[in-house]
Amino acid sequence: MRALSLLLVGGLVVLAGCNTDYEQDDVVPDAETVRPGVAALYAGLDPTPAELAEGECFADALLDRLTPEDLVVAGVLTDDGDPAAAVPMLDRDTAAVWVDVQAGCAEYAQVAGRAAAELDPDVDPDVYARCLDEAVSADDQRTALVTTLSGGVDTPIVAELTAAQAACAQEAGGASADPAVEPTDEASAQVRAGLVDLYLNDTRSLQRVTEGECFVDAFLQRRSVPQLVLAEVIDETGRVVPDLPRLDLETARAWVDAETACVAPLDALTRELRADAEPGDRPARTALRQCLSTTLDADQVRAALVQRLTQGSGSAEAAALARAQQDCVDAARPTG
User: Fold this and answer.
1) Which residues pair with 77 in a beta bridge?
2) Cα 274 to Cα 81, 180, 318, 328, distances in angstroms
3) What is the DSSP string of 66-99?
4) In terms of C-beta density within 10 A (0-12 exposed, 13-18 middle, 19 or more buried), how is residue 24 classed?
5) CA-to-CA separations, 73 to 68, 77, 83, 204, in angstroms, rounded
6) Which PROSITE patterns match (predicted)?
7) What are 189-241's pLDDT values in tens digits?
8) To 10 degrees, what angle do helices 265-276 and 298-311 make?
9) pTM higher than 0.85, yes or no?
10) Rounded Cα distance, 266 and 273, in Å
């Protein structure tokens, strides 16, 4: 069954350090000025009305607990008071404030259930939420979330929450990512966590972490751990490498097919292209998605993605995909 491990970390999380360039004499805008940016950072790209409301609640409460200067030092805001491109890895004290503030605006199990249902319509979000609250205490949920925000993904408490979420997704009616493919072997929690990190490539959101767990399930149904060692995705010590290497053809096909089982390729491309753009120059989501869908077909996208994983961005297929993407970005940019 598809394991939907939903580690609610609010907006995007990039596992990077704090802002070491900040000087005490730097002038940071006041709380009212930075509040909209903090809310937008929490809500993420293309938020639902519920996520927008949670983002506003979160920003209000966070700025009651931490000053803009605190958020600059933590890397959540830039020196000018603008929101960072993604939420950085936080020190444990700041992570604890973040999680506590978040809990005051939305119950984790309810939000996780809602996100699970968005990914898999067969999941009943209320059943999921009740299951998760029964399986993992509120204190343990909090500890797991604080640990995740402060960089401790590969820890027993996070593994406990991950396992509970997988079981609750099944209990709530979740469907298998690919019932025709049987798992090739069992992977350790360390390998699974490493593969999630490798897939996320330093970007974390509720939706992305959900997709990451789904991806790992589907990928490990297609490639065994010994095969991943041969492909140099896992090193000789049994750990997943920090950067994805060039892959052999079969591993690349398994990677792309596993990702496709969890998110539509054009949806993933749309999100990636919008996230790479500056906020004021960000292409409209609907227009960008429509352009990509009329320009590219599924087989073309799959071939290009496989070639990118095996040969890099210089391959003919990957270059053609990059050109088509740029043309659609240009066409969907805001005018005036």
Assistant:
1) 83
2) 22, 34, 19, 11
3) S-HHHHHHHTSB-TTSPBPSSEEP--HHHHHHHH
4) exposed
5) 9, 8, 12, 20
6) PROKAR_LIPOPROTEIN
7) 888 888 988 988 766 665 677 788 889 988 998 888 888 988 899 987 888 99
8) 60
9) no
10) 10
Total Cβ atoms within 10 A of residue 107: 17
* 54 residue type, one letter: E
Q: 68 pLDDT exceeds 80?
A: yes
Query: Which 3 state secondary structure label does DSSP give 313?
Result: coil
pLDDT at 275: 74
In angstroms, rounded to a whole number, what is the distance separating the alpha carbons of residues 109 and 131? 9
Average pLDDT of the residues in 122-132: 92
Average pLDDT over residues 69-78: 89
State the pLDDT confidence band at 332, using cuts at 50, 70 and 90: confident
CA atoms within 13 A on the CB side of 90: 25
Helix (H, G, I), strand (E, B), or coil: what is residue 47? coil
DSSP code of residue 282: P
Task: Report H helices in the chain.
Answer: 31-43, 49-65, 68-74, 92-105, 108-119, 125-135, 138-149, 156-171, 189-200, 206-222, 225-230, 249-262, 265-276, 285-295, 298-311, 316-332
Long-range contacts of 118-126 (CB under 8 A, 24+ apart): 118/207, 119/4, 119/207, 119/210, 119/211, 119/214, 119/262, 120/2, 120/4, 120/169, 120/174, 120/175, 122/173, 122/174, 122/175, 123/4, 123/169, 123/172, 123/173, 123/174, 124/172, 124/173, 125/172
Among 161, 204, 278, CA closest to 16: 204
Distance CA 140, CA 128 (A): 17
Indicate the domain borders of the chain: 264-336
DSSP 241: P
